Amino acid sequence: MEIKCIQNVFRFLGLSALACFSLLSCKTEKKEQVTANSKVKQAEYTNPLKVEFGDPYILDNGNGTYYMYGTGGGAKDGFATYSSTDLIKWKDEGQVYFGNTETSWNLKSFWAPEVYKIDNRYYLFYSADKKDNPTNEAETFSIGVAVSDSPKGPFEDIKNEPLFDPGYPIIDGNVFQDDDGKYFLYYSRACYQHAVESEIADWAKKEGLYDEIEESWVYGVELSPDFKSVIGEPVLLLRPPEKIEDKNAEWESRSVTSQEVNRRWTEGSFTFKHNDTYYMMYSANHYAGPNYAVGYATAKHPLGPYTKAENNPVLQKNVDQGGDVTGTGHNMVLQIDGGKKMYAVYHGRTKSTGDNRVVFMDAMEILEDGTLVVHGPTTSPQPNPITEL
User: Fold this and answer.
1) Pairing state of beta strands 293-299 and 277-284?
2) What does the record list as coiled-coil region(s) (predicted)?
3) How do beta strands 263-264 and 214-215 pair?
4) Mean pLDDT value across residues 122-145
5) Suppose 162 and one of 16, 142, 218, 365 were both cysteines; which one would form an S-S bond, judging by CB atoms 3.0 to 4.6 Å apart?
6) CA nearest 145: which of 252, 224, 56, 231?
């Protein structure tokens, strides 16, 4: 009798343990399912990102954290930054550079910041109007350089004057380091007081639209290793087409042909190297209009000559295809996993964002024949660039 009672007790305990185990297994399974579902939710993102920047630039800090810089973003006379570990959720880190001070060389129009990490220091290249303006010019854009020990600043100018003076207003500085260690600076000569003869200008004058067309051109020059000066003379690399029959003339002249303004732009350049070819992406048309778009050119040397691609533009408004994205431009290229993944990071507008520029991020690739393709603009769910959170 006692033995049978003991057996019943063990049988009861065994069944109870099995029930508890089953219950724990269900809870664990449910927990794993919740975690899996969370990962699925985090595995996608939708443009535009929740950051109001023009001219966005993302720095990979090398420790799992990314920093985004851009024009605007709540900064006053300077620049702000946002941080992220997944490229989707961005945290406002506040203003990191303050210009227009009593001792600064700059005054206003703080545009297009790009930050580079070199030897554990952070270098900020930016555009701004300078205070020194004895002839009272409407545009005095120059490029400055500031440095910090942290991506969150504060950044201080390395010298109280612009990087250099080419004799005309310049914007949109972009820095590229070649395999031999040399640095190159690319920038855009502003349209201001730069009227240029072309068949497009002749057409506009004949049609009674504009008496002249001003243009901005992209130049390149070697940069000193301390980022305090340039080496040699700037080289003209890109300009709007002179001939109407040029395959790139139509899309690069839309701000003129649509009667937005009497200017043609080649600006917001970004240069990178893929295999043995240098790729320069650039933006054309008015940044504040719907026709802002991106093209690219290639070369075998960082200072050219560059040849524009036949499949340009590679990024433009999608309203003609039923979308609502316009003003796509001033991009940079973010490379992930050692260049296995490439993303075009750029600004654009939608019907809901109105005139505010917001950040987009779309996958891009270079095909086997060297053709560059951007898969955008998108506003539908896209795979997260970061696969492991």
Assistant:
1) antiparallel
2) none
3) parallel
4) 98
5) 142
6) 224
Q: Provide the residue count of the chain.
A: 389
Chain-centroid distance of CA 223 in Å reads 21
Q: Which residue has the tokens 């959720």?
A: 89
Rounded distance between C-alpha atoms, residue 182 and residue 221, angstroms: 11
Q: What is the pLDDT of residues 150-180, one digit of tens each?
A: 999 999 999 999 999 999 999 999 999 999 9
32 φ, ψ (degrees, to nearest 5): -65, -35
Could you give the CA distance from residue 239 to residue 215 in angstroms, rounded to a whole number?
8
Question: For domain 51-383, which CATH number applies: 3.40.640.10, 2.60.120.620, 1.10.3720.10, 2.115.10.20?
Answer: 2.115.10.20
Report the pLDDT value the prediction gives residue 22, as an integer from 0 to 100.
Answer: 44
- In 3D, which of 340, 349, 342, 344 has the Cα closest to residue 332? 344
Question: By the 8 A CB rule, do 332 and 114 touch?
Answer: yes
Geometric angle at alpha carbon 289, from 287 and 290, rounded to 5°: 115
DSSP 8-state assignment for residue 247: T
Q: Where are the domains of the chain?
A: 1-42, 51-383
Distance CA 378, CA 364 (A): 12
Structure tokens at 208: 């009674």
* Mean pLDDT, residues 222-237: 98
On whether the pTM is more than 0.85, the answer is: yes
- CA distances for 256 relative to 191, 202, 215, 252, 386, angstroms: 13, 12, 11, 9, 40
